[in-house]
Amino acid sequence: MEAPARVDQVLSRSRAQLERRLELGDGMALALWRNAHDSPRYVQPGHHTLSVYLQGGQGTRALGMPGEGSPGCHCVLPAEHESRWQVGSGQRFLHLYCSGLSWAERVVRLLDAEPRALSLGLRLFAQDATLRHWGQAVAALDWAAPEARLQAEALAHQALDRLLLEAATPAQRQGAQRPRGGLSAAARRQLLAFLEAHLDAPNEALSLAALAARVHLSEFHFARMFRVSMGCSVHEWLAAARRRRAVQLVRQGRLPLAEVARRCGYANPSHLSRTLRGSLGLSPRELRRLGPP
């Protein structure tokens, strides 16, 4: 009998090709794969996996189970499940991995329930427009960019919260989705001042967990309350704040672009240039010609 192994370990020993991987912290990770004409087997991987087919999937089956893959469908593979697969023609798919501990903590803080009372079931080739668009949005991000990493983390939390609420009973969902107010005025001022002062901070310092801890909230409730207060997600606010600061510094013309990029949390001057051109339609050189704001 095969020994238990993580899904990514199984795929790394198969015909599958890893395009890129992003560690999100808190027991979560993303991976973008390609595979064709393969036969992987998963044996109690020890973590949950959400798999979204981005391209292809036809002819892919879990042996002994109904259905087959197609673009846009998704599978949920629980930590303790076992399955053997027949992979058809070329396909590209996104994986979100969630550790058992991360899932248990999510159950407790979101539903105030015992994790053992709520299990994640095996789901194969399901159709969900929200998760289809989720997979496309995550795959389209530049995972090397600081603000994109924060956005990917927020999107990962959204997907896992969705899976959890789908698995919950109606009474549990009602309790989790009860409307709540936004951040208090003091918490909002404290948080926004911190973000403005740390636009150049490393990703870990601006993760949802780190920001939620600063205002003594769970990640789930912090994300919801921030959106109620600010009308956008944390990553959207942070990306906009970085762009504003970058435009200001570029137009002042006193700093080299490398220093502007560093102060605003961009990976390098090229990343800064792509962001400005994408949002404003102007290169840093064109912005600099405009002079100070």
UniProtKB/TrEMBL annotation:
This is Helix-turn-helix domain-containing protein. It comes from Inhella proteolytica. The keyword RNA-binding does not apply. One of its GO terms (molecular function) is sequence-specific DNA binding. Pfam families: HTH_18. InterPro entries: AraC_XylS_family_regulators, Homeodomain-like_sf, HTH_AraC. The keyword DNA-binding applies. Residues 189-290 form the HTH araC/xylS-type domain. It comes from the Bacteria. Gene3D superfamilies: Homeodomain-like. PROSITE patterns: HTH_ARAC_FAMILY_2 (PS01124). Keywords: DNA-binding, Transcription, Transcription regulation.
